[in-house]
From TrEMBL:
It comes from Bordetella hinzii. Residues 130-204 form the Thioesterase domain. It comes from the Bacteria. This is PaaI family thioesterase. One of its GO terms (molecular function) is fatty acyl-CoA hydrolase activity.
Length: 216
């Protein structure tokens, strides 16, 4: 029989009318409703129906729960795998593109879901007047958030920037800037981060948020 919306409604309307008339009663297991015959002669059939319905409903819930666990609980502090200093230097020296390597970015601190990077003033990072350019600050922010993603417990692997939003608050000249990135959430396919950039004196320079695509 081909199930359509009309046939489905007819079936359930008939079932509930029979239930209201006392012909049958319904037993609800999880999200499934099964008809239970009140006649003693059908007690054996009812006993066979309950375990299968419970197994179906419970298995359905457990599969969903396992999916949520795999997707969103890998960012616990006890499950973090931090990068060692050698891997950090290798990443900055070889894995990053030349436009980022030329900025002189250095990793100051790494923690569970957190990364702190510094960038000194220089010709590659500053525009006319010695003021940090927006392009250099964006590169610093993106790099800091990449390192924050790599502290989610799965180590360093290729990531792709899907969305990057920057807000530039004030200019900075003559002193290095510090970017503090935070991992907001890390799932199976995406990671969400935010970053604050301040001057060495503590003045707020810029803030941003980014979404990264993760390998399957």
């Amino acid at each position: 029989m081909r199930w359509t919306r009309v046939s489905w409604l007819r079936r359930w309307r008939s079932t509930w009318l029979r239930c209201w008339a006392g012909a049958i009663r319904l037993g609800v297991v999880g999200c499934w409703a099964i008809s239970m015959q009140p006649d003693r002669r059908n007690s054996c059939a009812n006993a066979r129906r309950w375990p299968s319905a419970m197994e179906s409903a419970s298995g359905r819930r457990h599969r969903c729960a396992r999916g949520r666990t795999r997707a969103f609980t890998r960012n616990r502090e006890t499950d973090m795998i931090l990068l060692d200093r050698q891997e950090v230097e290798e990443t900055l020296g070889t894995a990053m593109p030349g436009c980022v390597r030329g900025l002189g970015i250095a990793v100051e601190d790494l923690g569970p879901g957190r990364a702190v990077l510094r960038m000194p003033p220089g010709e590659a990072a500053c525009r006319e007047g010695g003021i940090f350019s927006g392009q250099a600050l964006s590169a610093l922010a993106d790099t800091a958030m990449c390192f924050a993603v790599w502290t989610d417990g799965r180590g360093r692997r290729p990531v792709a920037t899907i969305d990057l939003h920057m807000t530039f608050i004030s200019g900075c000249a003559g002193e290095e800037v510090v970017a503090t990135a935070e991992l907001l959430r890390s799932g199976r396919g995406h990671a969400f981060t935010r970053v604050d950039i301040v001057s060495a004196g503590g003045k707020m320079i810029a803030s941003g948020m980014a979404t990264f695509g993760l390998p399957a």
